[in-house]
Amino acid sequence: LAKTTQPISMDSYEGQEVNITCSHNNIATNDYITWYQQFPSQGPRFIIQGYKTKVTNEVASLFIPADRKSSTLSLPRVSLSDTAVYYCLVVYNQGGKLIFGQGTELSVKP
Amino acid sequence: SQTIHQWPATLVQPVGSPLSLECTVEGTSNPNLYWYRQAAGRGLQLLFYSVGIGQISSEVPQNLSASRPQDRQFILSSKKLLLSDSGFYLCAWSIGAGGRTDTQYFGPGTRLTVL
Fold first, then answer.
1. Which residue of A98, B1, B42, B90 could cross-link B36, Cys pair, CB 3.0 to 4.6 Å?
2. How far is A79 from chain B (nearest CA, A)?
């Protein structure tokens, strides 16, 4: 069964770089990896999406190794407002299943 | 720009009562639409998705049903609510091949409490 795995929680301090890794062992050739951010009682917000190697936008970078069995979301210089739950989503081509990980609760401290 | 609305924002219902949650999308045509439930503990569970009017796919057997009477309207319903139906219900939309590489955009959610 297709599944993603993330750490349950992470702590960081303001100004640090945070890296959150997601494992997706059963990813197939045509599947993409997407990351979302969610604040309490709000809908998840799209952060970044990638297929292989590295993708960067104004808020984050996504690193995907050659075997694509994992991916790492990198948040540069986090602030208190980055405290949220971060979800890894892999859209599995087989069966059209949309699988969210359990999310990583990031706590940024002053 | 595209926007997605959900209502009501919060709802408290007794066990056995019916349910109707509505989701509408503006600023796009023929979107793919999704209903998720988020119980305590954070995980998002896909309940239903739709690639067009009248086309509904159910991901898990449950006490809920979904309908898509119009292109940009998605409704989640139940005839008789259970305690286990409590949770945070999220609607999402995407444009593309129907759930494969599509980026999904989420609504603000509805907090449902069944007593």
1. B90
2. 22
